[in-house]
Specification:
By secondary structure, this protein is mainly beta. It has three domains: 146 residues, Neuraminidase (6 Propeller); 142 residues, 7 Propeller (Methylamine Dehydrogenase, Chain H); 32 residues, no CATH class. Helices cover 10% and strands 40% of the residues. Strands 1-29-28-27 form a four-stranded antiparallel β-sheet. A four-stranded antiparallel β-sheet has the order 2-3-4-5, with no helix packed on it. The longest helix is centred in the N-terminal third of the chain and has 19 residues. The relative contact order is 0.10.
Amino acid sequence: MKLHRLAILSFAAFITIAVQGQLFHPLGLGIVTPREMAGDFWPQTHVEGDILFVCTNQGLYSKDLSNDESEWQLVGFEGIPLQDYARRGDDILAMRYNTNGSFLLLSHDGGQTYEDITPDILKDNRIDFLLNFAQHPTDPNTFLVSSYPAGGIYRTSDFGQTWEKLSPYTPDHIGFHSLNPEIIYEVGGAIRDAETDLHISYDGGQTWQKKWSCFPNYNNVYRIAFRPTDPNMWIAGGTGYVHTTSDNGLTWNSHRLDNYENDWRYDAFNVDWRYAAYDNESADIVYMAGGTRGEYMKVMCSTDGGKTWNKPCQEPIKTSPREYMFDMKQYGDKLLIYSQSDVYEISKAELLKQTTPVRNINATEGNTDVYDLQGRKLSGKPARGIYIEDGKKKVK
């Protein structure tokens, strides 16, 4: 009887893995970022209405997400490796990946024609390329750029005409707090593979507070998401960790995701959870996207604001020896994952359906709380069936 039950569970696990492989639906961009660029080149995506815009090493491309039969279109900046862009009406200011000092391109016609407006302040020979754009959430004229390796963070308030140096840091990612743009953050470590630097400014960049000591073993901190119903609550992924704060970034809790089934524990520690996002309709749902340093792209979700995390769904990488994940955005009921090989579409409903909760990040070893497969806490162990206890799936 036990062998029969084991065979059924093994078959069910095989079916689950097979189904999960269908969760990532490629949209057929047809542009693979070269391996020699991918380590430093982090192109971004934007969803404007029903149109997805994707920065690539060959220009700016778009696709109509409301039409499954739509084809990818070259929008502009043909042949230009684009990291990101900011839009103000018909004007586009694009950030070019370059090492010769031509970093910023301004277009008044959607990228068909453009001019180089890189200011002298950015033509310092210490700057090899620009890393990030961060556009102000309410003022399209204001945004930040970060430079590498020793340039710092710069701000413009007039759509790129004039610039000021905001800080000396060399971050991997910068951003405004989406609900309080006087708060600016920068995180470093992903490129340098060293200790993470997290600096936060609460006064628009005039002063900065260093927060790296908040994280265990200098663990990486990646892009931060802000809970839309509570501006004090932030969440970010790390390498095998989830980092949370409930006091606007002043203090942090870091939770290692190591309480999974044994066959997944080592893998979990090596997942770089680069992108976090609250659901665009429910603040209780949070998504994380990232990947291992070798074999898989991964997506996981939480349905209780980040307290309990489901075991990730995964997709084998298409490039070798690793695949870089560049961005994650939302469109309606779907997630859009941009990686080195393609843009992938994931149904949120299917993601929630295919995963089961296996880890409460606030749990301690020996926790006796019991949950069903939908993550609902039970009053006790069921007499028969499958349930979750101490972060592990059990059968009676």
